[in-house]
Amino acid sequence: QKDEIILALETSCDETAAAIVKGGNQLLSNVVATQMEIHQKFGGVVPEIASRHHIEQITLVIDQALEEANLTINEVDAIAVTEGPGLVGALLVGVNAAKTLAYAHGIPLIGVHHIAGHIYANRLEKEFQFPLLSLVVSGGHTELIYMKEHGDYEVIGETRDDAAGEAYDKVAKALNLPYPGGPVIDQIAHEGNDIYDFPRSWLEPGSYDFSFSGLKTAVINKLHQLKQKGEEFRIEDIAASFQASVVDVLVEKTYRATEELGVNQLIVAGGVSANKGLRVELEKRFNEMDVELMIPPLYLCTDNAAMIGAAASIQYHNQNYKDLSLNANPGLIL
Ligand code: KG4
Ligand code: ZN
């Protein structure tokens, strides 16, 4: 059986992306047109503007992905696309482009869950060893997902309010730092010290759920308090203290879950997995464990279409196809 060639599209937020993935784990091309600078002016993603830019970019990134892979559309076996979750207007651009290509060329159409994509980004680096646990931390999600086999996702914990990346972005805004906040806070945190002892939200004993809105509020209150009293402070120390709290909770809960579930691998995914503080602490913690730690390279952590193609490969082999009634689903469940 020959390795299938999948053309994958991802337009759920502010990156217009297309990639070619062969056999589920060979990345032939990976094109990402980011709109980050455009949204930076507004301090966050503006949905209407995102949709408009996706429309301008989508055919360009598709052509480039094919060209870089040295392929024509006739050599593609299936089209995959993120169907949700995400911004509905943004998702629609990818979904309609995918439906058009699948229909015009008479090839299967595969709808992929964005989080399944983030998890499968890791498979472009190394084969999965089940059972495994995945920590998905992004701007929209903070989830612990247990997997017994390919395509089987059991959410054992999730955030009850803000996602980890969202907390980074909101704290950055309060500190007058540019969007997206994660990378900047991560960077300055390393020049500061954890002196503010912000709360850690452990929730009920045994719970694998997360909560970051209390921490966000504590940081904002502290800032007001410091400013009101006219006390001197360094935003580096605020960033370091905030990051210490986030990383503490993420690492501790993840560690406990891997022990309790007896998994072979821990897979870290999503934009926040680019965080240096988180990477260092996870490496320390999992160094002497029997659990293999997998963190994808930076270009596979943030949104891209390669991960969508990798996840779609499993669906391709199960003939889990969609027909042309496929619609964008902003609230899609994993
Ligand atoms: O996965 P992603 O690109 O898009 C979503 O699906 O949300 O994640 C984006 C999020 C943003 O909130 C951004 O601030 C955060 O990931 N992020 C980081 C870092 N790099 C990106 N957060 C913490 N540390 C970083 N180094
Ligand atoms: Zn994402």
Automatic annotation (TrEMBL):
GO terms for molecular function: iron ion binding; tRNA N(6)-L-threonylcarbamoyladenine synthase activity. Fe cation binds at H114, H118, D303. Residues 26-309 form the Gcp-like domain. Its cofactor is Fe(2+). Binds 1 Fe(2+) ion per subunit. Keywords: Acyltransferase, Cytoplasm, Iron, Metal-binding, Transferase, tRNA processing. It catalyses: L-threonylcarbamoyladenylate + adenosine(37) in tRNA = N(6)-L-threonylcarbamoyladenosine(37) in tRNA + AMP + H(+). Substrate binds at V136, V137, S138, G139, G140, D169, G182, D186, N275. InterPro entries: ATPase_NBD (IPR043129), Gcp-like_dom (IPR000905), KAE1/TsaD (IPR017861), Peptidase_M22_CS (IPR017860), TsaD (IPR022450). Its EC number is 2.3.1.234. One of its GO terms (cellular component) is cytoplasm. One of its GO terms (biological process) is tRNA threonylcarbamoyladenosine modification. The keyword Acyltransferase applies. SUPFAM superfamilies: Actin-like ATPase domain (SSF53067). It is found in: Cytoplasm. It holds the Pfam family TsaD. Belongs to the KAE1 / TsaD family. Required for the formation of a threonylcarbamoyl group on adenosine at position 37 (t(6)A37) in tRNAs that read codons beginning with adenine. Is involved in the transfer of the threonylcarbamoyl moiety of threonylcarbamoyl-AMP (TC-AMP) to the N6 group of A37, together with TsaE and TsaB. TsaD likely plays a direct catalytic role in this reaction. This is tRNA N6-adenosine threonylcarbamoyltransferase.
